[in-house]
Amino acid sequence: MLLRESQPGNAGSRYVPPPVEQERTSVADALPAEGETLSVLVAGDSLSQGRFALKARNGYVRRVERALDEHWDATATVVGDSGRQSFDVTPDVPRRAFDLVILELGTNDATGNYAAFSENYSDLVRAVRKQSPDAGLVCLGSWQTEYRASLVDATIDRTCTEADGVYVDLNELYLDENLRGPEGAQGVYGVSDNFHPNDAGHGAMAELALEPILGQ
Asked: Are strands 73-79 and 100-104 parallel, antiparallel or unpaired?
């Protein structure tokens, strides 16, 4: 619908388009004041578990939690595990409200039943918003090849944006081979592969995840 400044036929009348809502780029305004407690929910798969950082503290979730703890009294709750897809994690969304929610799912959906991903991811976001309607919401894209990422990332972006969240693309990180592997390195989560992020990859993920939270 177009808005009109004056009636048709009047001299100087012109149509003015309605204002376009800008996509959210930060969730800082949804968070408590610095120094207060900050409850964080992270729902994810093996990346949120920390694979394949050499030490547990080097995983992106631990890095994010430490960074948040410099500004708030932050506590993170992590749901999900290796191999999980969006529909696996939805039933595990805690039935309580959080101040900040980070979703890191879609990587395994891209190699699984990706045809149903749009519905599955929407169900996940609805479950999150039902419990945490006012939380800052950050949705990380998939950690996948360019083709497989194309199967799911647009859905993550759209669904997150519609839920007043911020989408964070990870594909450029995945394509940087220096942020994955090497295969065969022994760490706290076992022997690494060439797919999962290494310490540097987890560090880069944490930096991107923190941008819309800290306004960096």
From this structure: unpaired
Residue 22 scores a pLDDT above 90: no
CA-derived radius of gyration, the chain: 20
Q: Give backbone dihedrals phi and psi of 4, rounded to 5 degrees, phi first.
A: -120, 135
CB 171 within 8 A of CB 146: yes
Rounded CA separation 72/141 (Å): 26
- Between these two residues, 1 and 197, which has the higher pLDDT value? 197
Query: Percent helix, strand and coil across the chain, each rounded to 5?
Result: 40, 20, 40
pLDDT tens-digit readout, 42-83: 999 999 999 999 999 999 999 999 999 999 999 999 999 999
Closest C-alpha to 196, from 185, 209, 207:
185
β pairing state of 190-191 and 186-187: antiparallel
Q: Are the beta carbons of 25 and 167 closer than 8 angstroms?
A: no
